[in-house]
Amino acid sequence: MKPRLLIVVGPTGAGKTDLALTLARELNGEVVSADSQQVYRGMDIGTGKISAAQRADVPHHLLDVADPDNEMTAVRFVELAEAAIADIAGRGRAVIVCGGTGLYVRTLLLGVFEGPGADPALRAALYQRIADEGAEALHAELTRVDPPMAAKIEVNDHKRLVRALEVFALTGVQMSVHQATHDHRKVPARYPHMLLGLAPERETLYHRIDARVEAMFAQGLLTEVEALRAQGFRPPLRSQQAIGYAEVHSHLDGVQDLATTIALVQRNSRRYARRQLSWYRPDASVVWHQRAEAVDLDALKRYVTA
Q: What is residue 8's three-state secondary structure?
């Protein structure tokens, strides 16, 4: 019997971390992070990583498991997450998965769409086009041929952008169509689970996001990025293209002033929150709450001990 998972999902700034901490304390559990940026060492402030004191209070897994120049894939995440889940459950503790990276959660539950093998020549040509034309041109092309997939991929996420175009070129079928055949309606979940969604009302969420970004800069986000640059970690490393980091790198390169940088991080974070909500909107199994206080802890205790 695989352990039952409580999975906390939702947009950035919704309060997922605080809810996961509460659940872990109430249910004698530990947290497995499903955040594609919190895996990186040295990226603490900009990713909203919990403090050392909070980690001492509630054990967390899959934080600080890679250097910023190491590529973290969904497949690698699942390998690490499965080991952590087995360890937690083996000690008789509840497993709480928490994070906003929808691809990680979906891959953990449903496996990964393998797709055709890589075509080195095609990939090289696509990356050369990024160098010559800019990623915006390829993203526009993906929007024409596969709008649902384009909506899920950031312009600066070159790896996923190239892969989506590669799959379409090799198969003649959109990546979104391939993935639609590999969803919860047709693929049995790999773990019994409950999905808890946290999504405050939009105005409240946007206010939280803006305040959170301002707090990150007050806490020293500029210094954090300067330290990463001193170690040689800069764009186009995928880790350094994350929201918050990409804009600060541009600021330190003299592209825009600090006030503009903060505003850009706030805007891009709000846009990301909308995409995160769109990711889960089709999934009727998510139990949504506007406030963490509305979560029925007694019902969850019954679920994890049943």
A: strand
